[in-house]
Amino acid sequence: MELAREVIIEEPILLNKLSKLTIHYYASRYPDAARMAIIKYDLNTARECVEVMRKLWDTLRKYLE
């Protein structure tokens, strides 16, 4: 989230969705986190995560060029 703010992502909806990805990051790094947060993965969850990441990369691409 700090990086997103540093590059001035001004879309509140994208920032909100990005913050929701944080739990998935921790769950992938720390298996106990997934159990403690009771995360259930399915196709819909995966699609939502991929959609957020695509929007994020589209936004960040402007700063990389």
Task: Write structural notes for this entry.
- It contains four helices and no strands.
- The chain is mostly helical and 65 residues long.
- The protein has one domain.
- The longest helix is centred in the C-terminal third of the chain and has 22 residues, at 43-64.
Structurally, the number of domains stands at: 1
- Shape label: elongated
Rg (CA only): 13 Å
* Structure summary, number of beta strands: 0
State the helix count.
Answer: 4
Quaternary class: single chain
- In percent, how much strand structure appears in the residues? under 5%
Distance from N terminus to C terminus (CA atoms, Å) equals 21 Å
Helix and strand composition category: mainly alpha
Largest sheet: none
Percent of residues in helical segments? over 70%
Average pLDDT number: 77
Instruction: Write down the secondary-structure element order.
Output: HHHH
Low-confidence stretches: none
